Amino acid sequence: METVLTRPSAAPVIQALRSIGYNASTAIADLVDNSLDARAVKIHINFAYGESDGMITISDNGSGMDEEMLQTAMNIGSKDPRAKRGANELGRFGMGLKTASFSLGKRLSVLSKKDGVYNERCWDLDHVSECNEWQLFTRIPEEVKAKMGDIDSESGTIVCIDKLDRFMGYGGKRKLKETSFYNKVARINRHLEFVFHSILEKSEVEMFINRKEIVPWDPFMRYHPNTMEGEMQMLRINENRIKVQYFILPHASHLTEPEYKKAGGYKGWRDHQGLYIYRENRLLYFGDWMGLFPKDAASQLARVRIDLPNAADSDWQVDIKKSGINLPEDAKRRLEAISSIARKVSRDIFYFRTQPGPRNPSIKGSLNTWEQAGSEDGPQFILNRNHPILSELLKNLDDENAKLLNLYLKFVQLGSPSNIIDSPKVPEEEVQEVPDSQKELVIQFAASMLKLHVADNEEQLFNILLTQPAFDGLNRATIKAITTEANLIVSN
């Protein structure tokens, strides 16, 4: 079959690559990934403001690139995403350096040094648009190179982005003011201390923004004595080993005001709940249950960490920006089970402050009057029958009165506003199928109403039973059938 070799026009493709969907924070994080892949242990990110333009530089002391390596790195699509990568390697598509840089500005200059030898390349999108060709400069403009500085170590790389039209409005009518420029830098700092917190905590890597060190922000508050850590679980999903562990943050009553504010993160407590997905210790996605559950206030203490190897990228559909991801079908059921436990514990703590202290690992709320039910299908809250006051009271009652008190408490529980649910309407003349446990409850309650003379005839008894929240789903025919079978019908 005949084929024709085509070459896409440079100008429109470059503009499309600029619109993949990065924001400034995700773009800078993607550029930092390249330094980490080069085994850098010191990474300096600098933002310089200018009246008409600014400059962003990312310099590292990594392995550097010779001329061939640098040319490959500057090619559009320099990697096959299907190729097997080395352990801990963060890059996948060979696109991040270019697409992340182009989302910030129109000129990308790279100066790299390997074994003492410098190499350089430069993409200028104004030039590409003008000639509509993939023309890559082999030299960096001298005025730009002078601002980039030298590489002090034997090997390393400096990435420079200027003509910052997307970042600060270069070439347009509305340029970012200096205060807004550095506010944006501060937001990027918060993003990096979050995305790379595991790498900064577990390795010798140091990162700086404008010479100020980036301090890792741990979303799981593992340093706090009242944080609960679930058991680490190893799952095998499509031949890849996945690590999953949930964390339950402390109740607000255990936190100082600064701790509470910091733990909420830049999105707030509610929007930081959910799954946290890492690849090679680099955060990819967070702050959502990804369709497994809706967000709710009571689950805001639950955060579930999932660690993937880079070989799982295809299964989890990691995108170029490393900020979009999809759960594989094989993972959903198992993650739902683990997350359900985390949400249950979060709700216990959120509602009842049953937070364990460092010396008290039990999470049973023995002094709470109410507890959350284990099932989400039935009553949401149940009375704590082990409360010491209730236990003492029952010990001092005879069997008959203890039985009556327990029956009353059961109806208090079932009549709680939080436990009342809408029941489907059924034909009044149709006798429903009712579980034996509910039949027994009807009989106990009806017998008590008759014994206490609250009801003196059949009509009164039926009206009382039909108005109880506990029997909201039962119709008159069913109530009559149950009481008749138990010989509880009284004469008019």
From TrEMBL:
Query: Its Gene Ontology molecular function terms?
Result: ATP binding; metal ion binding
Q: Which UniProt keywords apply?
A: ATP-binding, Coiled coil, Metal-binding, Nucleotide-binding
Q: Which residues form the signal peptide?
A: none
Q: Pfam families recorded for this chain?
A: HATPase_c_3
Q: For this UniProt entry, which segments traverse the membrane?
A: none
Keyword flag Glycoprotein: no
Question: What PANTHER family does the annotation carry?
Answer: MORC FAMILY CW-TYPE ZINC FINGER 2 (PTHR23337:SF3), ZINC FINGER CW-TYPE COILED-COIL DOMAIN PROTEIN 1 (PTHR23337)
What name is this protein filed under? ATP-binding protein
- The species this protein belongs to is Sporosarcina globispora (Bacillus globisporus)
